[in-house]
Design a protein that fits this description.
The protein is of the alpha+beta class and 745 residues long. The chain has 13 helices and 36 strands.
C-alpha cells in the first residue's frame, strides 16, 4: 500500500501584486498600505502590474458613505487615509470594550496548496487596536470552470465576547466598471417560484434581496443574481456579467449599490435578523461561501460555469446519473396501504422507472399515527397499523421488482402532538413566556437545531430507521415551516440573536452526519417546494424539488428561472396527472413528458389510472430519457428563446465532447395561424461535425412531427448553428424534443 503524500505547508506570498485566474477571468490583488485591494476583477490581463498601475486612476470622489477603498474585506470604521471612515463594508462589530470600529492590518498573504484544478490564497487580518481580533479571508479559483469561491473565518481572541452586527462573506467595491448596472434575480412564492426579474439600479440607489424565514430561504428571493455592467442588460452571449450566489440555507441578504460616483458595491452574507451575533472569547466562526463567475460574453457562459462548478466541485455524487423515480405523493397522499404502494411499484416498473419513493404518512403510532398533517411529525418509526410488514418489507418488494427504495423525512420539524415533543417540549423553538405559533396542520413547529442534543436525537432515530430498512437508496428531506417562534431554550437569554445563524449550522451538522453514516443515499432537498433550491443545501443534497406546482405549463417558467444558476442534474421534474392538482390545467402527456425530461425525470401519479395507450407512450419516453440522460444531466445549457419574451421557450444541452445534444421547445399558448417560428439555431455544436437529427417523444413512433422530412437526416453542425432547424409549432401548449447525435466519420 502506497503511503499518502504529505500536504505541503502554506507559503507566504511575496511582492505587492499577484493574481488568481480561471480560464476566462482573473482577480488581481494589490497591496495598498496595510491591506490588500482588488486591483482588477474581469477578463484576464497578462501583466498584473499593469492592472495595479491602472487601478488608482479609477478612484472616485468622496460621498456621504466615503470613497471606494477597494479593500478585499472592508470593515465598519476602517481608516481610509482621510477624514472619512468606512460606513458600509462587510463586517461591523462591538468589541468587548465597547469600541465599534475595525481597521485591518494584513499580517500575511499565503497560498494554500491544493489540487491542479484550483488555486487557494488567504489573507490573515488583525485589527490594529484589538490585535487578538482576527479574520482569515479565503479565495479559491477553479481553473476548470471559471468560478471563484470566497469565504471568511472570524476569530475572537479578545478577553470578552464580541458582538457581530454585520458579517458578510463578500464585499466588492470597485469604481470605473460601468455607468449603468442591471440586476437580475429570482423571486416568487409557494407554487410560483423562481420568476426572473431584471431592472436597472438607478444611480445612487441599490438593489436588495434577502430571506428572513430562517428555513425556507430560497422562496420569496433566491440567494443568487446576475449583474450586467453596461448601458443595457447582457444577453445570453453578449455583455459583461458578474454572476454570484451565496451558499447558505438560513437568513441572508445581498445588496448591490450603484453609487453616485458610479462605483459598484456588492455585499452578500448571512443576515442577523434580531440582533448581533455574540462570539465568545476564544471562539471562531466560519461564514458562508460566496461563489461568483465573470463573463465577457453574456449570461450563458456564467450559467454554464456555475453549473459545472456545482456538478463537479459541490454536489456529493458528481458522477452519478439520477434515477427515474415515482414519488407516491400526488398518486395517493395520506390514503395508502401496502397493497396500494405495491400496485404503484408495479406501475412504475412497467413504465421503466428505477426508484420508488414513499412520501409523507408512513410513520407515527397510536394517537400520533400520521394519517394527516396534524400529528406524528418527528416520530420516525413505521406506522405498523398502516404498514404491518414494515419498511424493510417494502424495500424488499421494491428490490424484487428491480427498483430502489426511497423515503420521506422532515428532520427540521415536529408536531406538538408527537412522542418526541411530548417527552421533550423544550426541544422546539419557542419564545419565553409566549404561546407557540404553529404552522402546517395548525400543529407544526420547528425543532431547535442550534441544540446539539436535538441534533443527536434526530440523527439517532433517523439513523436507526435507515439501518432497519437495510437498503434505503434515497431520502426526500422536506421542511415546511418558517422560524415562527424566534427563541431557543438552548442558547440562553444573551445569545437569542445567534439563533438565525446557529440554526442553519445545526441543520448542516445533522445533514453531514447522516451523509457520512450513509454515503450511498441520494438526498433531495425539498422545502414547501423550491425553498431549498440553493447552493448551501446542494453542498449536502444531490437534487432539489423545484416547486410543489407540478403543472407543466408553469414548470416551464419555474425551471427556466432555476436553470439560470442551478444544473439540470439537481432539478427534479415529475410527470403528473391532469387536471393538475395545483392549477387545474390540462396538458397532453407529451407536453408533460417534454417538460419533465429537461431535468431529472420522475412521476407523481398512480400508474393504474393511465390508459394502455398512455403507458405505451410513457415507456417510449422513459427509454428516450435514459438515452439522453447523460447530456441533460451533465451537458452545457444553451438558452435560445426565453418564455418571458415570446410565446415559446427553447434551449439545448450539449455534451462536453460536443457529440450529443438535445433541444427542447415549448409552445406557451400560441395562437392558431400565428405565423412561422424563427428557425432553431443550436449553439455549442462542433461546426466540423455532422449530426443525425431525430425528433423524439412523438405520440406515434416515427409518425408526425414538427420538422418535416429533416428527422432522420444528417446535417453539419455549422449549418444547424448558423441556419437553424425550421420547425412548426402548433397552437396552445405544443412541444418538441430534438436529439442530435454526431455521425461516425
Amino acid at each position: 500500500m502506497q503511503s499518502q503524500r504529505k500536504k505541503s505547508a502554506p507559503s507566504t506570498i511575496s511582492g505587492k501584486v499577484f493574481s488568481i485566474e480561471t480560464p476566462a477571468s482573473q482577480i488581481v490583488f494589490a497591496k495598498s498600505g496595510d491591506v490588500w485591494t482588488f486591483a482588477h476583477i474581469g477578463a484576464g490581463i497578462a501583466g498584473v502590474a499593469d492592472a495595479a498601475a491602472l487601478a488608482p486612476g479609477r478612484v472616485c470622489s468622496d460621498t456621504v458613505a466615503g470613497p471606494c477603498s477597494q479593500e478585499t474585506y472592508p470593515a465598519f470604521g476602517s481608516s481610509r487615509g482621510n477624514s472619512c471612515a468606512e460606513k458600509r463594508g462587510a463586517l461591523q462589530v462591538r468589541h468587548a470594550d465597547g469600541d465599534e470600529s475595525i481597521d485591518w492590518k494584513c499580517l500575511r498573504a499565503i497560498e494554500i496548496p491544493e489540487g491542479k484544478a484550483s488555486r487557494h490564497v488567504a489573507f490573515e487580518l488583525a485589527d490594529k487596536a484589538h490585535r487578538d481580533f482576527r479574520a482569515v479571508q479565503h479565495f479559491r479559483a477553479w481553473g476548470d470552470c471559471d468560478v471563484f469561491e470566497t469565504w471568511v473565518e472570524i476569530r475572537n481572541g479578545e478577553k470578552g465576547a464580541v458582538a457581530l452586527s454585520r458579517m458578510d462573506s463578500f464585499c466588492l467595491q470597485l469604481p470605473g466598471l460601468a455607468e449603468k448596472y442591471h440586476f437580475m434575480s429570482l423571486a416568487g412564492q409557494w407554487a410560483n417560484e423562481a420568476n426572473v426579474g431584471e431592472s436597472e439600479i438607478v444611480c445612487g440607489q441599490e438593489a436588495v434581496i434577502g430571506a428572513r424565514s430562517g428555513v425556507r430561504d430560497a422562496w420569496e428571493n433566491n440567494p443568487a443574481f446576475m449583474l450586467s455592467l453596461g448601458r443595457a442588460p447582457a444577453r445570453e452571449e453578449s455583455g459583461r456579467v458578474l454572476a454570484g450566489a451565496l451558499c447558505w440555507s438560513g437568513a441572508w441578504e445581498i445588496r448591490a449599490q450603484h453609487a453616485n460616483t458610479h462605483e459598484l458595491r456588492v455585499n452578500a452574507g448571512a443576515a442577523n435578523i434580531s440582533g448581533p451575533y455574540v462570539l465568545d472569547a476564544g471562539k471562531s466562526i466560519e461564514l458562508p461561501k460566496f461563489v461568483f463567475s465573470w463573463s465577457e460574453a453574456g449570461k450563458g457562459p456564467a450559467t454554464r460555469a456555475l453549473h459545472k462548478w456545482a456538478r463537479e466541485h459541490l454536489m456529493p455524487h458528481p458522477e452519478a446519473l439520477r434515477d427515474v423515480l415515482l414519488n407516491h405523493w400526488e398518486g395517493a397522499y395520506f390514503d395508502f396501504d401496502e397493497k396500494k404502494l405495491l400496485d404503484m411499484m408495479d406501475g412504475v416498473k412497467a413504465l421503466g422507472g428505477e426508484l420508488f419513493v414513499l412520501d409523507d404518512g408512513w410513520f407515527g403510532r397510536g394517537e400520533f399515527a400520521r394519517d394527516d398533517d396534524r400529528c406524528g411529525l418527528g416520530d420516525w418509526f413505521c406506522n405498523e397499523k398502516k404498514l404491518p410488514h414494515g419498511l424493510a418489507y417494502l424495500a424488499k418488494e421494491a428490490k424484487k421488482r428491480g427498483l430502489k427504495f426511497g423515503l420521506w423525512f422532515e428532520p427540521e420539524m415536529a408536531n406538538t402532538r408527537s412522542e418526541l415533543l411530548t417527552a421533550h417540549p423544550e426541544w422546539c423553538l419557542q419564545e419565553a413566556g409566549r404561546p407557540l405559533r404553529k404552522g402546517r396542520g395548525d400543529d407544526q413547529v420547528v425543532l431547535d437545531m442550534a441544540n446539539p442534543a436535538v441534533q443527536d436525537a434526530v440523527f439517532a432515530i433517523i439513523d436507526e430507521t435507515i439501518r432497519s430498512i437495510g437498503s434505503l437508496a434515497y431520502i426526500k428531506w422536506d421542511a415546511n415551516a418558517d422560524v415562527n417562534n424566534a427563541g431557543s431554550p438552548y442558547l440562553g437569554p444573551e445569545k437569542q440573536a445567534n439563533l438565525w445563524f446557529d440554526y442553519a449550522k445545526g441543520v448542516y451538522a445533522l445533514f453531514s452526519r447522516l451523509r457520512a453514516a450513509h454515503p450511498q443515499i441520494v438526498f433531495q432537498a425539498c422545502s414547501s417546494g423550491g425553498a431549498h433550491c440553493e447552493f448551501g443545501f446542494l453542498a449536502h443534497a444531490d437534487e432539489f424539488w423545484g416547486s410543489d406546482d407540478t403543472c407543466a405549463q408553469q414548470r416551464v417558467f419555474i425551471q427556466w428561472g432555476e436553470g439560470q444558476f442551478y444544473p439540470a442534474s439537481a432539478m427534479a421534474a415529475h410527470v403528473t396527472a391532469v387536471p393538475n392538482h395545483q392549477t387545474g390545467r390540462t396538458a397532453t402527456l407529451k407536453f408533460r413528458f417534454d417538460v419533465a425530461m429537461s431535468g431529472r425525470l420522475g412521476f407523481e401519479l398512480h400508474p393504474k389510472n393511465m390508459t394502455p395507450e398512455e403507458i405505451s407512450f410513457a415507456k417510449r419516453c422513459v427509454e428516450n430519457y435514459k438515452r439522453i440522460r447523460p447530456v441533460v444531466q451533465r451537458g452545457d445549457l444553451y438558452r435560445i428563446a426565453s418564455p418571458y419574451e415570446g410565446d415559446h421557450a427553447a434551449f439545448a444541452y450539449v455534451s462536453a465532447d460536443r457529440r450529443h445534444a438535445v433541444a427542447f421547445v415549448y409552445g406557451l399558448g400560441r395562437l392558431f395561424k400565428s405565423g412561422a417560428v424563427e428557425a432553431l439555431r443550436i449553439p455549442g455544436l462542433d461546426p466540423k461535425k455532422r449530426y443525425r437529427v431525430e425528433e423524439i417523444n412523438l405520440p406515434e413512433a416515427g409518425k408526425g412531427g414538427h420538422i418535416g422530412g429533416l428527422s432522420g437526416r444528417t446535417l453539419g453542425g455549422d449549418a444547424i448553428s448558423a441556419a437553424g432547424i425550421p420547425f412548426d409549432l402548433g397552437a396552445g401548449d405544443d412541444s418538441i424534443v430534438l436529439e442530435f447525435t454526431a455521425a461516425a466519420r
